[in-house]
Amino acid sequence: MDKKIKFLYIYTVGLTIFSFIIFYILINTKKDYKEFQKNYQTEIVSLQKEVLVLKEILKDREKELEKTKKEKEEIETKLKNIEEKIKKANHYLERKGIKVELPEGGIYIPENSKKIHLYAGNLEKSITKLLKTIQDIPVGVPLYGKITSGFGVRRDPFTGKKAFHTGIDLRATFKQPVFATANGKVVYAGWGRGYGKMVKIKHKYGFTTLYAHMYYIKVKTGQYVKAGQIIGYAGSTGRSTGVHLHYEIRRYGKLIDPKKMLYLNSKNRI
Ligand SMILES: [Zn+2]
Questions:
Q1: Which residue, of 51, 166, 213, 234, has the fewest CB within 10 Å?
Q2: Which tens digit of pLDDT belongs to each residue from 111-161?
Q3: 3-state SS class at 187
Q4: Residue 19 lies in a domain
Q5: How many domains are contained in the chain?
Q6: Domain M23ase beta-sheet core, which positions (predicted)?
Q7: Residue 24 belongs to a domain
Q8: How far is the CA of 10 from the centre of ligand 1 (A)?
Q9: How far is the CA of 28 from the centre of ligand 1 (A)?
Q10: Which residues line ion ligand 1, judged by CB < 5 Å?
Q11: Residue 252, class by beta-carbon neighbours within 10 Å (0-12 exposed, 13-18 middle, 19+ buried)?
């Protein structure tokens, strides 16, 4: 073969092989790029999905937060209502001349809801104090019966003349239970002339109560009694025209109308 032809031949073959290599590299690079692009897009799509899920979670959390906030507000409102009631109860007691010292800090209005448990605790203390005070003062009825004779000037059932009635008379059935209207100490239990079988109890805040004409006395002088405890049973002993309970209240020795103490929210002052 001619040297020139041989060279041309080698040159052509070489160029062809070189072109193939270049072509191969180019094809592969394009393939890699496409794959990369494909992967990249898949990743972006999955990231977008993740973002959506996170957004949903965030939305849920926001809803929860709003719900919690609402619940907190509701609790605050309820506590404030309780506070109002405590104030009202205290006001009723003040009307009766009873000043209740509410616990340290008194009724506390929270500046933020974080202190809500502290607020609730204070309210609870106030309620407990009020309840205790109410049990210490003679409010309520000593016997369930209709008032047949009121406090003050009336016609005496024995003489027919005008006389001062020192308490109220409550119609009773024989042996009907008589209750102490407040916590206190029995300072007298026994016969008391016109009063018949009677019980006198000394309470806090200067109060004394007296229960008369009983058939049977269940307590003894010196004994401590609780509000609502049975102290005896109704009868007609002493200066009495029939079975009834004569009930008296004194404060610092001065007679007061028991009718005004039968109901806590009575507007009448004592
Ligand atoms: Zn009487």
A1: 51
A2: 665 677 787 888 888 888 888 888 999 988 999 999 999 999 888 877 888
A3: strand
A4: no
A5: 2
A6: 164-258
A7: no
A8: 145
A9: 118
A10: 169, 246
A11: exposed
